Amino acid sequence: MNLASLLDLPSMIAPDAVALIDATGDGEPREITYQELRDAVSATAGLLVGYGVEPGDRVGIYATNSVAALEVLFAASAVGATVVPMNYRAGDEEAAHLISDSGSKVLFSETRYRSLIEQVTPDSLEHVNYLDDDYAAARDGADEYPLVAEVEDNDLATLLYTSGTTSLPKGVKLTHGALTGYIMGANDAADGSDQGRMLLAAPLYHVAGLTSLLNSLYSGRITVLMSQFEATRWLDLVDETKATHSFLVPTMLARVIDAETFDQYDLSSLQAVTYGAAPMPPAVIRRAIALFPDSVGFSGAYGQTETTSTVAVLGPDDHVLDSPDKERRLRSVGQILDDVNVRIVDPLGNVLGPNETGEVQLMTYRTMDGYWGAEEKTRVTIDDEGWVHTGDLGHLDEENYLFLTGRAGDMIIRGGENIAPEEVEAVLYEHPDVIEAAVVGIPDETWGERVVAALVVREGASLDEIYAHAHDHLAGFKRPEKLHLADELPRTSTGKLLRRHLIPQLQELED
């Protein structure tokens, strides 16, 4: 089934129901019905046909969240093209890679990125249209294309580029069948009844942002659209629009609860806050549970772009910390979903038992169709049996809760002892003056690697007290030998820590 059907079906069932609340501008939020959105998508699809876009062509979106960006997304799918949402925070080299590697035929951007786009435009790009400039006139002047093209389940719906923590991003090929199967398997189509309001703060180029949008639109939950995340703006919109649901990456949630004005907002409408896309420090989620209204149910979601989003969930009941077991499980990413198989394997490929740590491997019908133009990298990630080699280290307990202990490439080896950076960071986060923590291994002639941490701390924090805290809660070989202060830590746009960027910086300070 075509990805565009996730809008088409509810538009036929409940055309006059509100689909979107556009809160991307400075003015009053604007309501848009399913029929209004579907009509705009038909016009944009006609614009794409006029540009010569054919099934299989790539249509790029290099822009923040907006109604116009959504119109392009669904229009590209409607004509059978492949939509490529791109990281608008990318620098020159990465932006050039995204556009040229995807082979986008048409690109939709914003005028704020005009100079960058003009610098990196490859010959393969035939049209550039700016959503906040000439787009509306061009769309309204096009012949409508009201149909949704027939596609096969294994046809390519979207290319989502990975964060690129170690190299230039790879394009993950997600099919129409994987996306529609995931969304429709979890929801009924909108019927006009009240399903609440979902505040979309995640970008569309991230699988969590894309699937949050698709889940909301298909199920009839009104999507409150903000252009980019900003903590006080998020709080404003929850209060103003009475949002009931939202997805936040851990760094977003930390910024929300650290906002000076947090206590001034009415958050009583919130029913569910889901977090994911990066490891959640236990101290942050405990603090969020304490600060948000009791009516809010928290859920943790673990997944990868390569598996079309979520594969494990730590549900709301797991966040009600009324037993030692739940306190322990709060460090997990939850239980594996029914449409996913998981196994933990050692370096030789042997399947391990409960509480034995190894690589997490996953199998699901919604596994990616490979990396775009990178067959060798695809073979490294997906084996002949179809198991996705995640690169995450972890174990399953007796009740099938999955606990992650880090990334294989991030493991610190000091004197022959393996140290997971996340374990040390979790202890540092427990100190009330630590806002952010990053732990890496620095090369050392004697020990192989030394444990070093970079911290963002509150004003007036004492490093001696933080050292003492680490001393009291960590084994000697796991304690950071040095703590370095930083104004901010290097992260991807979705909150993943760029440890490899930190190593040369900290090594220079150590030398």
How would you describe this protein?
- This protein is of the alpha/beta class and 511 residues long.
- Among the domains are: 168 residues, Rossmann fold, CATH 3.40.50; 69 residues, Roll (Luciferase, domain 3); 100 residues, ANL, C-terminal domain (GMP Synthetase, Chain A, domain 3).
- It has 16 helices and 24 strands.
- The strands form six sheets. The protein has a nine-stranded mixed beta sheet with strand order 2-1-10-9-11-12-13-14-15, sandwiched between helices.
- The chain is globular.
- The model has no long low-confidence stretch (mean pLDDT 93).
Topology (elements, then pairings):
Elements (H helix, E strand, L loop, with lengths): L4 H9 L4 E5 L7 E4 H17 L7 E5 L4 H12 L3 E4 L6 H11 L3 E4 L4 H7 L6 E4 L4 H6 L15 E6 L9 E5 H11 L10 E4 L6 H13 L2 E4 L5 H11 L3 E4 L1 H9 L13 E5 L5 H10 L5 E8 L4 E6 L9 H6 L5 E2 L3 E6 L12 E7 L10 H7 L6 E9 L5 E6 L4 E3 L2 E3 L1 H9 L4 E11 L3 E10 L5 H11 L8 E4 L13 H12 L1
Helix pairs in contact: 1-8, 2-3, 4-5, 7-8, 9-10, 10-11
Structure described in brief:
The chain has 511 residues and is an alpha/beta fold. The chain is built from 16 helices and 24 strands. It has helices at 5-13, 34-50, 67-78, 92-102, 114-120, 135-140, 176-186, 207-219, 231-241, 250-258, 282-291, 324-329, 375-381, 421-429, 463-473, 499-510, and strands spanning 18-22, 30-33, 58-62, 82-85, 106-109, 127-130, 156-161, 171-175, 197-200, 222-225, 245-248, 272-276, 297-304, 309-314, 335-336, 340-345, 358-364, 388-396, 402-407, 412-414, 417-419, 434-444, 448-457, 482-485.
